[in-house]
Specification:
This is Transposase IS204/IS1001/IS1096/IS1165 DDE domain-containing protein. By secondary structure, this protein is mostly helical. Helices cover 76% and strands 0% of the residues.
Length: 70
């Protein structure tokens, strides 16, 4: 980050400023073993089912598809 701030690249300067603002979160994301990947997968699957069901039936059927689909 220090090397980037020494260069004449204003776009990267704003990127480094954002990294420094969120440095604790960046360090945690790169070092901790936790991941939100499984949650993102469920959200993606739910959105896909919702798109497939658009205009077809009532929310009860969508709920059944979400709960019964593996």
């Amino acid at each position: 980050m220090t090397a980037v701030l020494g260069d004449d690249l204003p776009e990267l300067h704003s990127f480094v400023a954002g990294l420094r603002r969120d440095q604790d979160a960046v360090n945690a994301g790169l070092t901790l073993p936790y991941s939100s990947g499984p949650v993102e997968g469920h959200v993606n699957r739910t959105k896909m089912l919702k798109r497939q069901m658009y205009g077809r039936a009532n929310p009860d059927l969508l709920r059944k598809r979400i709960l019964l689909t593996d």
